[in-house]
Structures are given as C-alpha cells and as structure tokens.
Design a protein that fits this description.
Length: 281
C-alpha cells in the first residue's frame, strides 16, 4: 500500500477506535474479508464483535489459498451463522497451482461447507504468476463452481478482455459469481451484470482519487455487494490503517450517497443480495 496522505486523525483500531463515526444505523454484510490472516490473530474476536456494533450481519471470510481456507474454516466454525468461508487459489499463486492435487482439495472444501470458490481470477497488474497459468487456474475453478453449484469470487486487475470473455462464458454455463473489489471499466461491469453476477465495492470508493460516480450508480440495487477486503484498503477516515470488516459501514454510506438513497434501505438490499448470492444460512 502507498502511505496515505489523508488529513484525518490517526487512531489505532486495536486501541478501541470507534467502529463507526456517528454513521446512521444501517445493516450490511462484508462479502470479502481476509479475516483468517495473521493481521487479526491478536484481536479477531474483538474485530468480529465490532462488526455487530457497526450494524454488520456477518462476514464472508476468504480463503485465498488452501492454507488460508483451512484457517477461514476454523474462524467460521467459531462463529456459526455470522462468519462463512470460501476456498480458492488466488491468481498471484497460480504458478504453484497443481490441478491434480489442488482441485480435489478445493472440492473437499466445498463438501465441507465453503460457500464459494475463490478468490480466483486474473491479475495482469502484478503478474506474480504467468498469465497462461492464471487462466488455467481460473478456468478450473470456474468449472468447480459449476460442478458444485457454488458462486465464484473473482479478482480481476488489468485483465479486462480475458476476464470479460471468461465471465461471459461462465454466465452462459449457468455459473454465478462476484466481481470483487471492483475498480474496472463500465464495460466489464456490464459483462458481469449481463451474466447475472454481483459487483462488490470496497473502501477504494471512499478515496479522494475515486472519480467514477457513474460506476457506483450503474450497478442495480439487486446486484450490489459491499466488502472490506480487510486487512487491506481501509476506507476514509481510516485510510492507511489495518482495515477491518466493521468499517464497511463507511463504504456503504459512500455508496448510498452516490446513489442518492438511504443507507438503511440500501444496506438491507445488500444483506439480501449477499445472503442470496452465497446462500448463507
Ligand atoms: Zn482480490
Ligand atoms: Zn481478497
């Protein structure tokens, strides 16, 4: 992360920072948090308690690798009905993806209660793995989503053409999913929406450099999700801090303002969408 230049006062979230700064009460579910990461080892249960205080009705804990998925599963097991887990292979790690080994392990995760495949996808910005291997791992996980009837959590960065083509094909095969932490073009959002997918926005939309108001209005109410992507991408006014799920309240407020709607009403839709998308129980 680039250090923040925001002028807001710094507060340490581990030292009892407020989970919301007098925001209107509104419900939401964090559709994407890396809550099983070591960044939360010291205060994970407290961070989950702050979700409730901030109006949150749950957190989807992302397993971006098989090791992370095992940890995410344990977090979910400790918070039934409030934390759910996923399992996938991130595009950054696609070079180490071994279908013979990993696909069966992911299949077992779905059988064990993971609510989605992912996160997976294509990242041509960092190119941490060769692009052909990223596409291979992504294609296999889309096929697993189809086989297991799960949605797929998709990470995409600077890979619009390939992502668009693969999402379009997945949609026609009946696969549903989420374009997570979406910062792409209107054209790619529209490909996702046409495929019946959801678009999830993170704290990036609260940054001063965000100028695409139209994108925040383009996604229909019934296709919109919100996420923290914590521990990354803390929203204003916490930018530069370790992010945490409770701060989704700020991203929701930003989305509601951009859309000219009431956060409580929009949040209720987002809760409904998230439950429907991941079939949460
Ligand atoms: Zn991601
Ligand atoms: Zn993520």
């Amino acid at each position: 992360m680039v250090p923040s230049a925001d002028p807001e006062p710094r507060r340490d979230p581990r030292a009892g920072a407020p989970s919301s700064l007098a925001l209107p009460a509104a419900p939401w579910i964090d559709s994407h948090a890396h809550l099983a990461g070591e960044e939360f080892d010291a205060d994970r249960d407290a961070a989950i308690a702050r979700v409730r205080e901030a109006g949150g009705q749950g957190v989807v804990c992302i397993g971006e690798s098989l090791a992370a998925a095992a940890r995410a599963r344990a977090v979910a097991a400790a918070h039934p009905g409030f934390v759910w887990w996923t399992a996938g292979v991130h595009p950054h790690d696609a070079a180490g993806y071994d279908p013979a080994r990993d696909l069966d392990a992911l299949r077992e995760c779905m059988a064990a209660g993971a609510v989605a495949v992912g996160e997976c996808g294509l990242d041509y910005h960092y190119d941490h793995s060769p692009r052909a291997q990223q596409r291979r791992a992504f294609a296999d996980q889309l096929a697993l989503a189809q086989e297991t009837g799960r949605p797929v959590v998709v990470h995409t960065r600077e890979a619009e053409d390939d992502t668009g083509a693969m999402v379009r094909e997945a949609g026609s095969a009946g696969i549903t999913g989420i374009l997570h932490c979406f910062t792409g073009s209107h054209a790619l959002a529209e490909v996702g929406l046409a495929a019946g997918w959801y678009v999830s926005f993170s704290g990036i939309v609260t940054f001063r450099k965000w100028t695409d108001e139209a994108l925040l209005r383009l996604v229909p109410d019934d296709s919109l999700l919100v996420e923290s992507d914590s521990p990354y991408l803390a929203p204003v006014p916490f930018r530069g801090k370790r992010n945490e799920p409770a701060w989704c309240a700020h991203t929701l407020a930003r989305l509601a303002a951009a859309r000219g709607t009431d956060p409580a009403l929009l949040g209720a839709r987002i809760v409904e969408n998230t439950r429907h998308c991941f079939r949460l129980r």
